[in-house]
C-alpha cells in the first residue's frame, strides 16, 4: 500500500512539474489564426476591422491579419501630402505591420465600420466600407473618418483580400451622404 501511495505521489508530482514547465514556456501573446474568418465576405471584412483595432497597449494578431490577404496584395493609402498634392502610398501587408503596428499599440486605434456597400460578380467582389476611427472605446467622437475600397477574390474555398485602397475624410473631401448610415 505504501509503495502504491508513493508511486501515485511521484506520478502526480511529475505531472504537476511537467504542466508548470509547459505554462512557463508558453508565449503569452501567441495568437492563432481563425481559418473560418475568410469563408464569407462579411466575416472577412469584420475580421479585418477587428484585427487592426485595439486599446492602447493591446497587441494585434498580425498572423490573422496576414491570413486575410492574397499573395502580392496591396494596401494603398491615397490623400493629400503636406504641400496639398494628392498622392498614393503602396504597401504590402508586412509593410503596413512594420510602419503602423507599433503606432496602433502605442496610441490605441479602433476602426469601426459605419456603412457598407458590396458589389459581387462571379468570384470577385468590391466592398465600399465607410469607417470611423477612435483611440479608445470610451471616446465619444472619432478622430478620423474615411472610406476603404476593398477588392476581394474567391478561389472556390475562401475570400482573399486583393487590395485595400483608402482615403481619409478632410474638410475639402467630406464623405458623401450616400456612404453614411
Features:
6 strands; 181 residues; globular; alpha+beta; six-stranded mixed beta sheet; 4 helices
What does this structure look like?
- It is a single chain.
- The protein contains four helices and six strands.
- It is α+β, with helices and mostly antiparallel strands and about 180 residues long.
- A six-stranded mixed beta sheet has the order 2-1-6-5-4-3.
- It is globular.
Brief summary:
The protein has 181 residues and is an alpha+beta fold. It contains four helices and six strands.
C-alpha geometry: globular
Contiguous low-pLDDT stretches (5 residues minimum) are 4-18, 20-26
Number of DSSP helices?
4
Give me the side-by-side strand order of the main sheet. 2-1-6-5-4-3
Layout of secondary structure:
Elements: H1 2-25, H2 41-52, H3 62-67, E1 69-80, E2 86-91, H4 93-107, E3 110-121, E4 124-134, E5 144-154, E6 159-168
Parallel strand pairs: 1-6
Antiparallel strand pairs: 1-2, 3-4, 4-5, 5-6
Amino acid at each position: 500500500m505504501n509503495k502504491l501511495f508513493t508511486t501515485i505521489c511521484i506520478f502526480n508530482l511529475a505531472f504537476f512539474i511537467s504542466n508548470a514547465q509547459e505554462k512557463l514556456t508558453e508565449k503569452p501573446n501567441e495568437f492563432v489564426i481563425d481559418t473560418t474568418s475568410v469563408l464569407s465576405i462579411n466575416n472577412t471584412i469584420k475580421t479585418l476591422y477587428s484585427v487592426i483595432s485595439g486599446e492602447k497597449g493591446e497587441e494585434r494578431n498580425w498572423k490573422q491579419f496576414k491570413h486575410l490577404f492574397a499573395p502580392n496584395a496591396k494596401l494603398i493609402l491615397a490623400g493629400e501630402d503636406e504641400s496639398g498634392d494628392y498622392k498614393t502610398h503602396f504597401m504590402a501587408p508586412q509593410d503596413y505591420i512594420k510602419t503602423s503596428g507599433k503606432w496602433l499599440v502605442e496610441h490605441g486605434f479602433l476602426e469601426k465600420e459605419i456603412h457598407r456597400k458590396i458589389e459581387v460578380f462571379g468570384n470577385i467582389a468590391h466592398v465600399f466600407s465607410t469607417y470611423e476611427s477612435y483611440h479608445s472605446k470610451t471616446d465619444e467622437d472619432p478622430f478620423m473618418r474615411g472610406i476603404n475600397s476593398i477588392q476581394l477574390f474567391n478561389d472556390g474555398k475562401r475570400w482573399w483580400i486583393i487590395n485595400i485602397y483608402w482615403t481619409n475624410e478632410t474638410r475639402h473631401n467630406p464623405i458623401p451622404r450616400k456612404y453614411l448610415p
